[in-house]
Design brief:
Its main location: mitochondrion. The chain is of the alpha+beta class. The protein has three domains: 3-44; 79-107; 116-240, Rieske [2Fe-2S] iron-sulphur domain (Rieske Iron-sulfur Protein, 3-layer Sandwich). The chain is 40% helix and 19% strand. It has helices at residues 3-8, 14-54, 78-107, 111-117, 148-155, 168-171, and strands at 119-122, 131-136, 139-145, 177-181, 192-195, 200-203, 208-210, 216-218, 230-234, 237-240. The strands form three sheets. It has a four-stranded antiparallel β-sheet with strand order 5-6-7-8, with no helix packed on it. A three-stranded antiparallel β-sheet has the order 1-10-9. Strands 2-3-4 form a three-stranded antiparallel β-sheet, with no helix packed on it. A hairpin with a 5-residue loop joins strand 7 and strand 8 (216-218). It is elongated and about 150 Å long.
Length: 241
């Protein structure tokens, strides 16, 4: 019974009962229609799922109706973009090149350092049999003007008996002049000129004896005295280095 009739206390008439019956029938019909639509939709979805399982495919279609898609850029503006990017890379490469060049140039020797790399010596005041000491690259250098007797003695030495075999001609381009670095090859001491058992050089640190050709003859030193690069630019001018 409809609630309106119950609250009013009135007895429903036949017309009222007919109207209520028709309303109930319409509601039942609407529920049946909704059930049919849901059943039809479920059946369709089940069929699509079954078909997808039986024949899988990589061709998947997505619904992009609710998504914004960026449009591709204007092709006429790409050339300008490429030009800007290429120009920037060229500027960067040039800056990097300048940086590397500055670094390499900073490592090169300066003019004053190059001047110290070579040393000119006036040999006109050096007497026969005399040894003078000059400083070259922070090291002492012995310049000895040998006598004919010293030259003859050193040339006659048996090279096979030497610890560091070298002929006198290999160490002295001009037999009259011998140029050696004044640093003992043992531990770096400075030997004494015109001393030792062979009247060459004697190292007082550990007793190494060198002859008048700068060759090790006795003591712990393993090698001969070093002969630096030198040349005569004039008859009385020598350049070391």
């Amino acid at each position: 019974m409809p609630t309106g009739f119950a609250s009013s206390g009135e007895t429903p008439t036949g017309a009222d009962r007919g109207l209520a019956h028709r309303q109930l029938a319409a509601a039942a019909a609407f529920r049946g229609m909704a059930t049919d639509v849901a059943t039809t939709s479920n059946t369709a979805n089940s069929g699509a799922i079954t078909a997808a399982l039986k024949t899988p495919t990589a061709d998947i279609q997505y619904d992009l109706s609710n998504h914004s898609v960026d449009k591709p850029g204007d092709p006429s503006k790409r050339a300008f973009t490429y030009f800007v990017l290429t120009g920037g890379r060229m500027v960067y490469a040039s800056a990097l090149r300048l940086t590397v060049l500055k670094f390499l140039l900073s490592m090169s020797a300066s003019a004053d350092v190059l001047a110290l790399a070579s040393l000119e010596v006036d040999t006109s005041k050096i007497e026969s049999g005399q040894t003078v000491t000059v400083k070259w690259r922070g090291k002492p250098v012995f310049i000895r003007r040998r006598t004919p007797g010293e030259i003859e003695k050193e040339v006659a030495v048996d090279v096979g008996s030497l610890r560091d075999p070298q002929t006198d001609g290999e160490r002295a381009a001009d037999p009259e002049w011998l140029v050696v670095v004044g640093v003992c090859t043992h531990l770096g001491c400075v030997p004494i000129s015109n001393a030792g058992d062979y009247n060459g050089w004697f190292c007082p640190c550990h007793g190494s004896h060198y002859d008048a050709s700068g060759r090790i003859r006795k003591g712990p030193a393993p090698y001969n005295l070093e002969v630096p690069e030198y040349k005569f630019t004039e008859s009385d001018k020598m350049v070391i280095g």
